[in-house]
């Protein structure tokens, strides 16, 4: 399969989240066409640009397929009824971490995007859901989602296709990269390969190189 339907396009604004902390993890569906620019959707915000957003994390996709599993783990939660419940910009079903490779290219609406890295979970997910232990479960199960960089700007709307137009590095699925670098299970050979994996985001290549020593 090379085409999936975009069920929702979601954006958010940075708002008070936890005391002095701000976050834009709450993403709401947008009506009509949304611009896809080099640093993401317009408008869309990230509260802490040092760890979210930018060209290498321009768009986030968290698979809708994971939502039912989360219900078995944490029960019903209002955020599990939202297509952007995990801070995802693109709501898509039927596409998982082991199906997607670093460097895969997709046509999304009129834009062209490329898979750049897995999402590394942080405490904001647990605060959003009011549930401790969610980050550990993501690390253990690999239900992480992933980011895209934008190669060609354009527009996208709910109902458009997400069409894979080019396969990336077939040896390196999002699931395998996550297991290696975020779950910390990489072998020395894997670290060496990741350190020079050109379509992987520079930050994660540097992380692999640093661990390799």
Please explain how this structure is put together.
The strands form three sheets. Strands 1, 4, 7, 8, 9, 10, 11 and 13 form an eight-stranded antiparallel β-sheet that branches. A three-stranded antiparallel β-sheet has the order 6-5-12, with no helix packed on it. The longest helix has 11 residues, at 202-212. Helix content is 24%, strand content 28%. It is an alpha+beta fold and 213 residues long. It is globular. The model has no long low-confidence stretch (mean pLDDT 93). Strand 2 and strand 3 form a beta hairpin. It has helices spanning 66-74, 123-129, 134-141, 174-182, 188-195, 202-212, and strands spanning 3-11, 15-18, 21-23, 28-29, 34-37, 40-42, 59-61, 90-92, 105-108, 111-118, 146-152, 154-156, 161-166. Helix 5 (188-195) packs antiparallel against helix 6 (202-212). The chain has a single domain (3-184), classed as Beta Barrel (M1 Pyruvate Kinase, Domain 3). It is built from six helices and 13 strands.
Average pLDDT number: 93
Report helical residue fraction: 10-25%
Strand content: 25-35%
Q: Specify the CATH homologous superfamily.
A: PK beta-barrel domain-like
| Overall shape | globular
Q: What about the largest sheet?
A: 8 strands, antiparallel
Q: Remind me, CATH topology?
A: M1 Pyruvate Kinase, Domain 3
- The tally of helices reads 6
Instruction: Tell me the count of domains.
Output: 1
Q: What's the CATH architecture?
A: Beta Barrel
The low-pLDDT segments are none
